[in-house]
Amino acid sequence: MRADRLADRLVIMPEPQERSKRLMRLYFTYRVILAIGLLMFSSVGIGPSFLGTNAPDLHIITVLTYLVLAIASLMLSFFDLGSTQVEYAFAMLGQPVSMLIPEVIGFKLTGAMKEGTTATDLVLTVVQMLRAKGVVGKFVEFYGPGLDHLTLADQATIGNMAPEYGATCGIFPVDEETIRYLSFTGRDPERVALVEAYAKAQGMWRDASTPDPVFTDTLELDLGTVEPSLAGPKRPQDRVPLSGVSGSAEQALADMGSGTATPIAGSDDSIEPADVVIAAITSCTNTSNPSVLVGAGLLAKKAREK
After folding, report:
1. Beta bridge partners of residue 153, listed in sequence order
2. Is the pLDDT confidence value at 59 over 50?
3. What are the tens digits of pLDDT across the range 180-201?
4. Residue 46 clears pLDDT 90, i.e. is over it
5. How many CB atoms lie within 10 A of CB 87?
6. What is the pLDDT of residue 40?
7. How many Å is the maximal CA-CA distance in the chain?
8. Which residue would you say has higher pLDDT here, 8 or 32?
9. What phi and psi values does residue 217 have, to the nearest 5 degrees?
10. Which of 23, 92, 120, 280 lies deepest, with the highest CB count within 10 Å?
11. What is the pLDDT of residue 79?
């Protein structure tokens, strides 16, 4: 099926007034079911206190209450999480809902990474720049021609480090790399074509001709300037260029003191101050990127052989 025809399959919602009427009936039925359930709990002595009965076990009340919520949701084909029912009701009835719109910081990527650099080097550089920028509570969207030279795994590595650079999320646009990944991982061809058609119809598609979006603020990185780096020496989000590792290690030792040797249980060996120890290779940075995970495994293998 052609991609342009797939766009015709997108769901068309009923007219707002008719939709509001339907949802009002559904929501009313849902509240009736919930009320009946709570009254049933009350009749056996485990109802919530506002119904005028004692509540000997709050855990039971919570479980049973959400059981009713789940049953009502299944019957009415929608979910209610309980914490924002007012907002849900407003939305269902076609009323405006106020909300805080987060700031979106644009991170423009240009150029291509040099041979010998990895996604870990890139993500440590990105984290360093974003922490200096200050993006706590904000969205970060990556854009620019540099995306043409990043695999989806590289993009996932950057997005996965959002907690380290403090953003609510790090997102990338849908592009040819996304479609390539969906096909590579065995998705149905018709579904892949639908994703592409939908992204283009919604204006979420990115290619070489796409103009730069408008953001609250921006910063830029030339991928060609990324150099091999190590994380640390204290915090995993910190970056030390490979050329500065020696000086960084000496400074860290001076700050922490010379220390003493630590015996290794079951062995005559000991760990001396300034020894390099591979404690783990399963960090989130590595496991979100197959190529980096394989590289970490090879490093551990070579270390073991020595």
Report:
1. none
2. no
3. 999 999 999 999 999 999 999 9
4. no
5. 13
6. 59
7. 80
8. 32
9. -160, 165
10. 120
11. 38
Contact 171, 134 (CB under 8 A): no
Residue at token pair 């101050």: 273
- The token pair at 14 is 């009923």
Mean pLDDT, residues 237-251 taken together: 78
Give me the pLDDT at residue 187, please. Answer: 93
Token look-up 């290619």 returns 207
Cis peptide before 233 (omega within 30 of 0): yes
Most confident option among 32-36, 216-220, 239-243, 265-269: 216-220
